């Protein structure tokens, strides 16, 4: 039995932040990773998708600016930069880095065998603290034939260096929307089949409809309320997707983007009492899942984002080190990196209604309210909506669909996190001219008037 102060199972962004902090605290740490240190985010999700999206975004941006032409696309160069960003799917530098910092690195599948006990390959580890950061898996919907047609998940889609001539994207959430726009802008014929009534269904309908218009401008076909019944390979090697209304869509490739589920199987969480009734990780506000076991990141199912995984790792390690603070998820930014970006934070209108929060809202069309959309591009665009709790006067939700919205939504995030009432925000806000942040002034003024009514 090998003894350690702490063991981290799964080395995606959540595991890496936890491990780094535990090492910094002087602990003897063992990290276990069955695939690549850096996780889904580093190789098959955030990093490759955002790297490639930037290429097509910059190209489209140039076309929208007066006096510029659409630059030529060097796809080979774009893919090789993507490959450099994902380290050629090689984590040997990360392995060496953790070893140099004094950690024990085990490349292999690990699972809890009991309180303070972990098995990794044929090694038995005794660990005072265990942090589980095993991420999530894509969910394949129950559609006849879906496992037999060589469908892509995000793994194949983000690492491909060959483009199909046509692509059906099943699911219109963040993964489906981002990758649909990427491939459409790389001149692939793209059709999204989405079961919801609007894209990115977690957000307000108005936001989802603006995303739909943006994708339609790029030539993406969108089937809403689409129910796929079966999928098969045709004689000419294409993929045929039959919908419940009997329509058949055909394309060279199918990308399944219908959601992700916490990766709890085989981790042994049940052996330490860390799995709740529904098979989900039980978690308190310090990310404790059981005595001396913490869980962070996608495996918790709280909010499937890298920044949440990293935040939960900070929460968990602070608890381990004895200066804990409670996790607060009220102000988690949610950015879909399509063009223009959809950025949201706090509650949507639906969530506010579910929670019984009486909200007032203000919506601002950016080109009618501020100058920045015109200095930014020839065809100005964008909208922002703010939601405030009528009773407390605090900002509780916001979304914007506009260039760079993923950056300037953080002002709303800070206001929501800090519980700033709208009048105080208005008094404190003096935004630079001409910026997108200026849109907060008319929106907050409208909110203040609505609260006062
Ligand atoms: C296409 C796509 C794009 C995305 N873009 C963004 C984005 O732009 N911004 C954002 O915030 N989020 C984005 N996400 C979500 C983001 O990728 C995840 O929220 C993030 O990776 C979660 O980090 P994690 O550490 O919890 O898990 P992961 O990154 O999944 O890492 C978990 C690690 O645990 C390992 N592991 C699992 N089980 C075991 C075991 N038993 N033993 C040892 N190791 C194990 C896995 O191999 C993996 O390396 C995107 C997701 C997708 C699919
Ligand atoms: N920019 C980012 O931060 C970013 C980008 C990508 C993914 N992510 C994260 O990854 C997670 C997974 O994203 P996702 O887009 O795969 O999942 P999702 O659950 O957010 O969206 C999937 C969508 O697919 C639809 N759907 C489900 N089954 C379907 C079916 N059979 N046919 C058609 N449509 C169907 C659902 O209505 C749902 O809206 C998200 O929670 C998100 O937080 C984040």
Short structural summary:
FAD binds at residues 50, 134-136, 298. With 453 residues, this protein is α/β, with parallel strands linked by helices.
- Our count of domains comes out at 3
Which small compounds were modeled alongside the protein? Answer: flavin-adenine dinucleotide, nicotinamide-adenine-dinucleotide
For the biggest sheet, the summary is: 8 strands, mixed
Computed CA radius of gyration, to the nearest angstrom? 23 Å
Architecture of the largest domain in CATH? 3-Layer(bba) Sandwich
Query: First CA to last CA: what distance?
Result: 68 Å
CATH class of the largest domain: Alpha Beta
**Shape annotation:** globular
How much of the polypeptide forms β-strand, as a percent range?
Answer: 15-25%
Q: How many beta strands in the DSSP annotation? A: 22
Secondary structure class reads alpha/beta
Low-confidence stretches: none
Kindly report the average pLDDT value: 97
Number of helices: 15
Roughly how much helix do the residues carry, as a percent range? 25-40%
Per the CATH scheme, the topology name of the largest domain is FAD/NAD(P)-binding domain
CATH superfamily of the largest domain: FAD/NAD(P)-binding domain
